[in-house]
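Students often ask why inverse folding is considered easier than folding. One informal answer: many sequences map to the same fold, so there is more than one right answer. In these notes we will look at a single instance of the problem. The structure comes first.
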């Protein structure tokens, strides 16, 4: 399919940088146009890696649920209140996993797994108040560790700074390559 998604994103970025940005004279307006540029750069970067990242995240979530199930089973000692958590985990893990690599299918699975993981974490918090075991403590720590990793995948100050430096270089190169200047200045 032409243009591809990534080509479309790059075309929009080019239009913003080459056509719209040069017309903006106020520093605020110039800075404001960098925000959609940054969003487009983020989309472009995610375009190639989103499916792989979601697949790996889904595998990690399923593994966390498996270890949580075993931890709850070993700590429950027949307690009925823990049976519901184990049942929910088993139901989620037994669902048919469609072999699709479509972002929408992977996202749907990810949301379902995360929802079950959240319920499991709440059950762990209830268990921790009553009784605790090494298995539950370990599984709980692994879940929180994964959640921290996922939370830090977003933008940071350094991403924004490096993006702005990249855009400054692109603008400087464009000015140097312009045969007759920018026209109206």
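Output (designed amino acids):
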């Amino acid at each position: 399919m032409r243009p591809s998604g990534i080509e479309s994103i790059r075309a929009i970025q080019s239009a913003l940088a080459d056509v719209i940005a040069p017309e903006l004279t106020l520093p605020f307006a110039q800075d404001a146009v960098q925000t959609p540029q940054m969003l487009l750069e983020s989309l472009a970067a995610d375009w190639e890696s989103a499916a792989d990242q979601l697949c790996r995240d889904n595998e990690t979530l399923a593994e966390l649920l498996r270890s949580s199930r075993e931890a709850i089973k070993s700590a429950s000692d027949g307690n009925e209140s823990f049976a519901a958590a184990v049942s929910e985990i088993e139901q989620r893990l037994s669902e048919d996993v469609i072999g699709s690599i479509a972002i929408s299918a992977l996202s749907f699975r990810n949301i379902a797994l995360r929802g079950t993981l959240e319920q499991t974490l709440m059950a762990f918090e209830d268990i921790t108040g009553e009784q605790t075991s090494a298995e539950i403590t370990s599984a709980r720590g692994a879940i929180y560790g994964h959640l921290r990793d996922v939370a830090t995948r977003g933008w940071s100050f350094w991403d924004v700074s490096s993006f702005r430096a990249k855009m400054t270089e692109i603008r400087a190169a464009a000015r140097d390559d312009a045969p007759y200047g920018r026209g109206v200045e």
